[in-house]
Amino acid sequence: MKLSTRARYGLKAMADIAANEKKGTVSLNQIAKRNGISENYLEQLIAVLKKAGLVNSIRGAGGGYTLGKSPEEITVCEVLEVLEGSLSLVECGEDGACGSGDCGSCQTKDVWKKLSTSLIETAESITLKDLLP
After folding, report:
1. Which helix (H) or strand (E) holds 56?
2. N or C: which end of the chain has fewer CB within 10 A?
3. How far is CA 30 from CA 1, 36, 84, 100, 106, in A?
């Protein structure tokens, strides 16, 4: 399993805002330069994060972005799910849909469930505050 650039860059942007918002709002240009991310791509990611309430935007001179909640309230899991969707590794057990149509006798269902649970619990245990320098 690999996370897309959408998730990796989105989390980098959120960590950047958390680390720099004490100085005021953080502009897309600043985030892009510090993290080597295309400003156009970053704009798309921030729009999704804003819609989910994870970032706020302030218009005008001196405008930019701030976190929608405090860094200790925003988990890595929340950011990744907003950008990627469910962190479950496979669809096993989710409404009985796994593609094979025979979830009840699947020998590997418990493996996928344990791995998914572990991933989600770990991502939920890490907040943006934990990512601050």
Report:
1. strand 55-58
2. C
3. 30, 10, 24, 47, 49
* CA gap 91, 97 in Å, rounded: 6
Sign, Cα dihedral of 7, 29, 22, 20:
positive
Instruction: Return per-residue pLDDT of the chain as tens, 133 residues.
Output: 788 999 999 999 999 999 999 989 999 999 999 999 999 999 999 999 999 999 999 998 888 999 999 999 999 999 999 999 999 888 765 555 565 566 666 788 888 889 999 999 999 999 999 999 8
Its domain, for residue 76, covers: 5-131
Rounded Cα distance, 118 and 98, in Å: 19
Closest C-alpha among 2, 21, 3 to residue 79 = 3
**The domain that contains 47 carries what CATH number?**
1.10.10.10
How deeply is 125 buried, as exposed, middle or buried, from its count of CB atoms within 10 A (0-12, 13-18, 19+)?
exposed
In the chain, the number of structural domains is: 1
